[in-house]
Amino acid sequence: MQQETKQCEKCHKDFSILEEDSLFYEKFDLPLPSMCVYCRWKYLLAFWVFGKFRIAKSALSGKTIITVIPESAPFPIYERAEFVSDAWDPLTYGKDYDASSSFIEQLVELQSKVPHPHQTGIKNFNSDWTDDMWESKDAYLSRSGLHNESISYGYRVLNCKNSIDIAMCWDLERSYDCLYCFKSYNLKYSFNSRDCMDSLFLYDCRNCQNCFMSWNLRNQKYCVLNQPYSKEDYFKKIAEYNLASRSSVEAFKKELWQHIQQDAVHRQDYNLQAVNSQGNLLNNDKNCYQCYFIEDSENCRYCFRGRGKETIDSISLFDSEKCSLGALDQLGYGNTCNLYTTSCRYSSYLDNCEECEYCFGCVGLRKKKYCILNKQYTKEEYESLVGRIKGDMKNRGEWGKFFPLSVAYCGYNLSLAQMMFPMTKDEALKFGVKWEEAVEPHYENIISGDDLPDTIDQVKDEIVKQRVLCPETKLSYNITKDELAFYKQHKIPLPRRHFDWRTLERFKPFSLMIMPQRGTCYFCKKEIEHYYGLELGFQKVACLECYQREVA
Question: 20-37: b or e for each residue (b if 16 or more CB lie within 10 Å)?
Fold first, then answer.
């Protein structure tokens, strides 16, 4: 039941505060939000770094590090192992609370002085050029992954091996240029497919083998444009295509997208086993409202990516419970307004803290308890002072407001917010976020991406000694020796654009699937709620029942 309508302080559009929302905010002792959910997500996602990899020096030891945190960050950056070592003590930065000034301003001052780790992720081998990568081997220029081996240019990947240019994929091997694909082998140029092998240009296919340019297939072999062939005729047909040519591949990509728009049947959402839930890309969730990219979660509202319980207004929650207003608050319990924290409980306004309990307004702490502004207190002193601080913050209108956008580690254009909610520089500055201007070093031996050979057969081994300039981003990149071997083995033409641009372009359809739309089922004409923005141009959007009848 709708309780209140407010105007968003950022986009100035009206949004609703539901009765269930009010109960959540009351339970967490939080004021009602002043921004609509989309602006709240933009705000929180602006703190999630998706920056340009760069070589730097640890401020502690001078050791060479590779980080995505830009040079503009105000705080010192330590190599991750040094950050968690006993070589320094975060409590030496402790300060007394000054009741005469803003607590947030005092926290911001502390944040600018306390060192931060150069990257997130542990237990990796030969994976220096990564961020948010965990327990992986031989990963290169990849982000957000777990248990991967020999992958390059991956984003949000799990249990993947020997693959390049994949995003939001699980259990792929020997695959290339895939989005939202699962448990597949030798899959290329595909989207939303699973349990497939030795196939190219698929959309929404399941358990298919040796299929080409097809959509909505189930349990099929040797199909081209959804038409079955004999095994011999299939391979004769495929041999007619010059898949080693970039111009041919780009033409096939455009053709597949036209079929996706005009011929493919799209279920109204991508949800699986979502009980009493609203949102998209939900998996095994219960009682979740306006959530996206959420799995194994219960009683969550306005959460974006991850899994948790009884949590509201959070991004990248991982096994978090009873948390609110969090950005990358992982394995947390009972927290409010935490940023890049792990295994913290009953704490608020923490930045890059680990395994802390009952801490308030602290930065860089590990295994601490009863600390405020990095200063140690007794239990009684802590509880008394936190009560005073919260009262002062409420009087100033600060309590329940996240860290100010000015202290985000990077500019909006180098954050995950730009991937999901892209803005121009002017739009971003008006929103109140920072913007990073690209500074690319000069290289003597450089070639434009547009001048790369059309076919992989024309590429010489010397290409690994050159830098390639991306015409879109004006950033340069290189082709590694292993990468070139992969392209030659799989007859894949060289990429002509920077790897970050490729990831953003690949992920773009999902940025158009996070706002509910009203429409009618293409088949039965009943009214439905779906999540396909008009820009996608999908013509055959179906209710679940009609989709199952027509496809499954």
Answer: ebeebbeebebeebbbbb
The answer to whether the CB of 32 falls within 8 A of the CB of 1 is: no
Contacts of 361 (CB under 8 A, 6+ apart): 103, 106, 107, 110, 348, 349, 350, 372, 373, 389
In this structure, the strands spanning 221-224 and 197-203 are: unpaired
Answer yes or no: are the C-beta atoms of 109 and 158 closer than 8 Å.
Answer: no
pLDDT at residue number 2: 59
CB atoms within 10 A of CB 173: 18
Q: What is the pLDDT of residue 473?
A: 87
Q: Locate the domains of the chain by residue range.
A: 2-35, 164-267, 276-405, 446-497, 519-550
Whether residue 341 contacts residue 353, with contact meaning beta carbons closer than 8 Å, is answered with yes
CA distance 134 to 155: 12
Q: Which of 167, 131, 168, 172 is nearest to 150 (CA)?
A: 172
- pTM over the 0.90 mark: yes
Q: What is the pLDDT of residues 173-199, one digit of tens each?
A: 999 999 999 999 999 999 999 999 999
d(CA 32, CA 22): 7
Q: Report the distance separating Cα 41 and Cα 507, nearest Å.
A: 17
Phi, psi of 529, rounded to the nearest 5 degrees: -105, 125
pLDDT in tens, 281-338: 999 999 999 999 999 999 999 999 999 999 999 999 889 999 999 999 999 999 999 9
Rounded CA separation 355/222 (Å): 53
Cβ atoms within 10 Å, residue 119: 26
User: What residue ranges of the chain have pLDDT lower than 50?
Assistant: 1
Count of beta carbons in the 10 Å neighbourhood of residue 519: 14
Confidence at residue 248, expressed as pLDDT on a 0 to 100 scale: 96
* Cα 434 to Cα 51: distance, rounded to the nearest angstrom: 13
Residues paired with residue 125 on neighbouring β-strands, in sequence order: 137
| Residue in this structure with the two tokens 């040094």, named with its chain if needed | 82
Per-residue HEC secondary structure of 152-199 comes to ECCEEEECCEEEEEEEEEEEEECCEEEECCEEEEEEEEEECCECCEEE
Give the pLDDT confidence score for residue 438 in this predicted structure: 72
- Give every CB contact of residue 31 below 8 A, 6+ residues apart in sequence: 25, 399, 400
Q: How many CB atoms lie within 10 A of CB 175?
A: 28
Distance CA 218, CA 208 (A): 6
382: three-class secondary structure by DSSP: helix
